[in-house]
Amino acid sequence: MKSSGRITVRLRPRGRGDALLGFEDGVLRARVSAPPTDGRANRALCKLIAAQVGVAPSRVSVVHGAKSRDKVVEVESVGADELAERLAG
Known about the structure:
This protein is an alpha+beta fold. It has helices spanning 40-53, 80-88; strands spanning 5-12, 19-24, 27-31, 60-64, 70-75.
């Protein structure tokens, strides 16, 4: 069984559409159209990352920074190196 991978993300809520914008200084930049209320932006971010990595959205969670633009996101069953590779591509 693979371990979980974690990635640091800088999220911009209420953006024009949902997109992963690439890495800058080791931090994944992302934007979602959802507002940052009631965890909606976090859920949209998790769905976006899950789609890019190829896992179920339930395997992606924000483990730190739920109310901040800077977050740590964990993806279950994908190693850290593989996670960074899938998100970069």
